[in-house]
Please model this.
Amino acid sequence: MSEVYVEHLSFALGDEKRSVEEASESGLTISKAADLRDAGFTQHHICRPQTTAYDLASRAVSDIKEYLPGTGAIIYSTCLPLNGNIGDESKFKETRDVKYLMDFPASHLQADFALDRAFVIGLNQQACTGVLGSLRLARMLLTSEPQIQRVLCVTSDRFPPGALYEQAYNLISDGAVACIVHTSPGAFRLLACHAITNGSMARASDDETVGSYFNYTYRVIQETLAAAGLDMKDIAWVVPQNTNRKAWQILARLLRFDYERVFFSTLSTVGHLISGDNIINLRALMDERGIRSGERLLLFMAGYGLNWQCVILEKT
Amino acid sequence: MRAKDILITGADGYIGMRLAHAYLELTDMPVVLWVRAATQEAFEAKRDRLEQQFSRYEARISYESGDLVKERPFDSVDPRRIRKIIHTAAVTKFNVDPDTAESVNIRGAEKVLKFASQCDSLEALGVLSTVYASGLKTGVISEVPLEDVGFANHYERSKAAAEAKLIRDFDYLPWRILRVATVVADDQTGHVTQFNAFHNTLKLLYYGLLSLIPGNPETPLYFVTGEFVKDAVFRVMQSTASKAIYHVCHTRSESLTLGELVDIAFERFARQQEFNSRRILKPLYADAESFDMLGTAVDTFSGSIVNQALSSVTPFARQLFIQKEFRNERLVSALRDYRSPDPHQLVRNTCDYLVSTKWGKEEGNVVRTGN
Model:
């Protein structure tokens, strides 16, 4: 299998910042503000009414547009399936024409950035784990179709008006991330991708979701390591989602991994950007700590479905 | 007046009621059933329930009440009538708060001992304790007075303190201490009347709410049935030997480990389509600190169901790391026909009962699924 690389990480956040107290007072959370602070959250980002998920995606991709030429595919993932359509639902109700339910943001992205040779794939049933799923899919494309040498991965979500900005006890932010996966040597070599889906827990309660978190997380990480022929001691950094920090304090102990090497410094200021946290944390890790050549990073995500995904990267 | 009665405190409790049955069925002794009641109304409600249970023996029973946290809870009992006392009343929850543990399990026990001191014809005093009064002690634990090596929770501490007080200040009484192991079922069939941390933990595992479990899979767990406890206490109380401690439990070689318990539970759970289809994984074994972190963190990332259940497991968690080897030679000698049940089968039957009745909620649904 030829090697695949990930780089050019970018992101865009919802326009407005709100503290956990403001979120709580606005009725956007279920948990108490103090509990969310205790979990590590201090603020989150939400979109103004006129800002769409597509706007966020477009902003994230704009930051890396110089690297887009030659893109052969766009993988556009959303946590919420409704963000996979930017059509006007009221027009569907008015006309009963379903084309208003198929106004795909990936197509707009291809047109707006003139990625004429790129075809599009929508990925919208992996919930919070979508970005890792898109890396995996990109790797499959690149290795199975040699004519494709560059894939743009985008994940973008904003919560619909009236939604709670809390899921499974985590404070949510609107936002988008983008990155490029390609076959030319780049910042990170993609060593392994792995996922587990437990569809029987598709309708799991928050308690069941939390209840399955530790053992499924442990399992998907161990299986990913095994697939790469590695052990936790071979990993320099774990880059998780922005979810309750206490969960990772526990997981690090279970994995016999130094908690100080679990990097999610944006938890406090970014919140849980549903399917894009890892990319933001990875960029923060590059900026704040620097990553040495040869260091391996383990990216992990869990999401509804229930889905667990894990990716191992190696700094070139 | 010739003393001939037996006084059972906590007579409406799980063990107390079984002992009351035993004395009523197997002896002709008059039985004084003492229950905790802060008001007359509460007493009458408890008495009515017990009268229904024991209607056949009405003439031999007298009902008394009091409250161990109040002064002189046994004022209504004539000490001249009492020949034997079995003290079962206690707060037995692992998550008992320190004040309650102190007032009920220590000072309350002292009031029983003071009352016993007034019973001039007292022949036998049985005080129920727990094998976990041994606290954090590891290794061989014999049927002897304990040294204080620290405790996992206030329940253990209070029972150890009550034992120490008895031996230190009331040694003139004809006492015997019965340290009982964890009661997981009424009998070998696995039927459960009283639910405790053991059952709550299995419930969390069955419903996929607990992906971590504290402890080492090699840690031995000491389980008994209510029937075994009743028989053992009854027999020990018949014995004339006093000033003795008995471990009402089975030996290490007759017991399961934590890992075996989890394996058996998942094997039995997996026979249920409802469980199987959800692909619930076995829990990970967490070290003590990790589980403590889960216990404190769970307030912020879990709902009330998990919170409540964890609060009953957490105070016991430290015991699941400690390798204890309880000895029971004195008990075996007292019982003579001592037999230990197959611990695997006991747990299998108990798991089947819990699953088929949804932890007692659907009592009519019990289905035996074989071995």
